[in-house]
Amino acid sequence: MNDAASFVGRGHELAQLREAHLRRRHVLVIGAAGIGKSALLRQARQQYPILICEETSTLRRIFESLERQFGWTYRKMNVIERKNRLLPYLARRAEIVALDSVAHTPPRVARFIHNLIERVPVWISCRSEQPTEIGAVWESLARFEHIELRPLVRSESAAIIQSAVNSRRVPTSIKDFIPALHRIAQGNPRALEELLIELATRDYRLERPFERNLLALDRPIHHLADLASP
Fold first, then answer.
1. CA 207 vs CA 157, 175, 177: distances in Å
2. DSSP letters of 33-77?
3. pLDDT (tens digit, 9 = 90+) per residue, 166-222?
C-alpha cells in the first residue's frame, strides 16, 4: 500500500504517538486490515527512533527482525540465549519497540512481550483488543494507551484520489466519481489504493452502475491473485 496515501487524515493520531513517545507510554494501535496501522508506525519512525518488528508470529521472527536492525548475527545461539542477549540490550537502548500486526499471540511470544513491557515502551498494532484476536497479551493491555484508527471521511478519500490524478496514475475524469469510490472502499485506505490500481490498469465506465459493481468485484479478486503469485 502507498504509505503517503494511507497516511492522509492521520495527523491527530501521529500527534498522539508523539505525546506517547515523550511520556514513554505503551500504546495499542487498533484498526481494521488496510486502515493504515503500519503506515502510521513508519511515519512516526521518520520523526524519532523506533524499532519496528513487522513479523511477530514467533520468537525467532521477532528476534531476527530486531537483530537485523542491530546488524547482529546469532552464531548458532538458541532462542533462550538470543532472548537473554536481546532484553538487556533493548533496556540499555531504551528505544520504543513497535510490534506490528500482532494477532493470536502464542504464550511464548506473550511472555517475551510481557518482559519487554517491563523494560521499554512497547507499541502494538492489531485489529482488535479482544482476547480472541490478540491472544495472551490481552492481560497487559490495561497498561496501554489506545489509539483507534477510524475510516477515512470523503474529503480524505478525495485527497488521495486527487493525488493519483495529479501524478497521472488515473485519468482526470475519475474525480467525478469520488463519492462512489469512497463508498466502495468504505473509507479504507488500502481498499481505495487497490481501486486506483484497478482504474489505472483497466478502462471502467464508472457512469454505469454495472461497471462500478464490476470494479468493486475485481479489486478483491486481483488482490488475492497478487498475494498468491510467486
1. 19, 12, 8
2. TTSSHHHHHHHHHTTS-EEEES--SSHHHHHHHHHHHHT---TT-
3. 999 898 988 998 998 999 899 999 999 989 988 888 887 878 777 777 777 776 655
pTM given for the model: 0.86
Residue 98's beta-bridge partner residues?
52, 123
Question: And the C-alpha cell for 49?
Answer: 527512533
Residue 226 buriedness (CB in 10 A; 0-12 / 13-18 / 19+): exposed
Per-residue buried b or exposed e for 150-181, using 16+ beta carbons within 10 Å of the residue's own CB: ebbeeebbbebbebbbeeeebeeebeebbebb
Q: What's the start-to-end Cα distance of the chain, in Å?
A: 18
**215 Cβ contact partners less than 8 Å away, ≥ 6 residues apart:** 184, 195, 198, 199, 204, 206
Angle CA(175)–CA(156)–CA(206) in degrees, nearest 5? 30
For residue 153, give every residue at least 6 positions away whose Cβ sits within 8 Å of its Cβ, in sequence order, or none.
Answer: 9, 187
